[in-house]
Amino acid sequence: MATVISMQYFITTLSAVFGPNISGWMVELGGNNYAIIWLLTFGLMFIATLLVIPIKFGEPHKEAQMFVGD
User: Fold this and answer.
1) Which of 35, 16, 17 lies closest to 26 in space, CA to CA?
2) How far apart are CA 47 and CA 33, in angstroms?
3) Which parts of the chain register pLDDT below 50?
4) What's the pLDDT at 9?
5) Is residue 37 within 8 Å of 27, Cβ to Cβ?
6) What backbone phi and psi angles, to 5 degrees, belong to 67?
7) What value, to the nearest 5°, has the Cα angle with vertex 28 and ends 26 and 30?
8) What pLDDT score was predicted for residue 45?
9) How open is the CA angle 25-29-33, to the nearest 5 degrees?
């Protein structure tokens, strides 16, 4: 669990540093149309959701082997 929290802290810090710059560049590329931020947000959230889907939480468990026999 600590790994996930560390990753979240790292990504949150990166987004605080790079987010305003990237948003500003996108607004400039969109001709100073601030509505483009909504499209950017939707696209990045969609990508984030796709990347999070395969993550499994919890401890790995080995299957117990049942010895029936002799």
Assistant:
1) 35
2) 23
3) none
4) 92
5) yes
6) -100, 110
7) 70
8) 92
9) 95
- The end-to-end CA distance of the chain, in Å, is 43
> What global pTM score does this model have?
0.54
Please report the pLDDT score of residue 40 as a whole number: 86
Report the length, in residues, of the chain. Answer: 70
What are 27's two structure tokens?
């607004």
pLDDT reported for residue 60: 67
For residue 64, what are the CA distances in angstroms to 23, 56, 59? 51, 20, 15
Other beta carbons within 10 Å of 36: 16
Amino acid identity of 2?
A
Residue with tokens 């990237």, as numbered in its chain: 22
Spans of all domains in the chain: 20-49
Q: What is the DSSP string of 23-43?
A: HHHHHHHTTS-TTHHHHHHHH
The sign of the torsion formed by the CA atoms of 32, 38, 42, 45 equals positive
